[in-house]
Amino acid sequence: QVQLVESGGGLVQPGGSLRLSCVASRRIFSIYRAGWYRQAPGKQRELVAAMPTSGSSNYGDSVKGRFTISRDNAKNTVYLQMNSLKPEDTAVYYCNAYLNSWNEFWGQGTQVTVSS
Fold first, then answer.
1. Is 75 helix (H, G, I), strand (E, B) or coil?
2. Contact 103, 59 (CB under 8 A)
3. Is the separation of the CB atoms in 114 and 14 below 8 Å?
4. I need a labelling partner for 43 at 20 to 30 A (CA). Which of 60, 68, 94, 109 fits?
5. β-bridge mates for residue 20, sequence order
């Protein structure tokens, strides 16, 4: 079993920035695809960003050019740098580690609120 713990959420004004962190209880991000998802009230959970163990990352259309996913395998940590935040970015953000259908883990989520 793997625990994922997110941090870094909070309240930020439109146009501001936040960096989310996700720490894994063991070294998995060198093997598992790392991802960030979000879920706003009344909406389905959606992919924000995903980083495979090799190759290019991919981003949801609404965050391209504003958000960046990165990984530090030595620290078992994945980051999501969020810039130029908009009110529609308000959601609970979840960290994800995916290998296959039988090996997938989620964090508990961290709230991001973008409001003036």
1. helix
2. no
3. yes
4. 68
5. 80
The C-alpha atoms of residue 43 and residue 6 are separated, in whole angstroms, by: 21
48 with 62: CB under 8 angstroms? no
Asked whether the beta carbons of 32 and 97 are under 8 A apart, the reply is yes
CB 67 within 8 A of CB 80: yes
Single-letter amino acid code for the residue at 116: S
Q: Tell me if 69 sits within 8 A of 79, measured CB to CB.
A: yes
Side-chain-side CA neighbours of residue 49 (13 Å)? 19
What is residue 1's predicted lDDT score, i.e. its pLDDT?
Answer: 85
Average pLDDT for 61-86: 97
What is the per-residue pLDDT across 16-67, written as a single tens digit (0 to 9) for each? Answer: 999 999 999 999 998 999 999 999 999 999 999 999 999 999 999 999 999 9
Instruction: Give CA–CA dist 85/16, Å, rounded.
Output: 5
